[in-house]
Amino acid sequence: MDSKVIPPNLxxxxxxxxxxxxxxxxxxxxxxxxxxHDVYCRDLHWEAExxxxxxxxxxxxxxxxCLIRTNDAQQQRVGCLRIVLPNPNNPAEPLPVxxxxxxxxDRSLLDPRHLERRRLAEVSRLAIVHDYRRRKEEQAExxxxxxxxxxxxxxxxxxxIPVGLFLAAFAVAEVLEIExxxxxxxxxxxxxxxxxxxxxxxxxxxxxxxxxxxxxxMYTSLVIQNLRPMLRPMWRMIRAEIRRELAAAGPDxxxxxxxGVHIPFPxxxx
Length: 270
Hints:
Blueprint: E1 4-5, H1 10-17, E2 18-23, H2 26-43, E3 63-70, E4 77-84, H3 96-100, E5 120-128, E6 157-158, H4 160-175, E7 180-185, H5 187-195, E8 200-202, E9 207-208, E10 212-219, H6 220-225, H7 232-249
Parallel strand pairs: 5-7
Antiparallel strand pairs: 1-6, 2-3, 3-4, 4-5, 7-10, 8-10, 9-10
Helix pairs in contact: 1-7, 4-7
């Protein structure tokens, strides 16, 4: 991971290096699909290459894409992830991890089938372009965190890209009043995210899915409440930007939200 030396204020440093947006138009969504194609199809060969150079699936019809670009004149695409919401035409239809881990989810810990579906979503398709996954151990994963990404006591570092994308997912979930975020993750990534206050709780046995993966859940309100102090400036900056974008776009930007539920988009100045 192309982590950076930690400055006094993570929010200001992130703003200096990157621009993060919610893809609320076709051009931005296509950019996210191109990142996914570069990583999942060309780099990792997990999906077949597409003639149009964009990787997408049926879940993207009711997903929200988050995209990071460099904050410079080139505005190069760097990474993305998506938040999959329930199918508005069939809210009971399983989310991807519910299908993939149907036999391994421990329903005594959490049974997604019994949750209010509009308060449930899934975070998936984390993808970071090759130039930001330079180390050998990163080449086999679309986006990960290693212990060295946090540096040492003498020279601390920070993995801005994956952390920024997940903070964007929490900001979107907060606005849409989504409390349960499912994720199928590699165990190491969950361990390193827990280190900075992303409380990822395993809810079932491991499966083999492009490597060892475990079904897990993040509770939006708990993650926000328990973020480490050093992360809060970055969270406040990303949260404010996401809320401004959603407020400016209005509910019409997401017409397929499940059940036609009124979503309390914030005022621009909040």
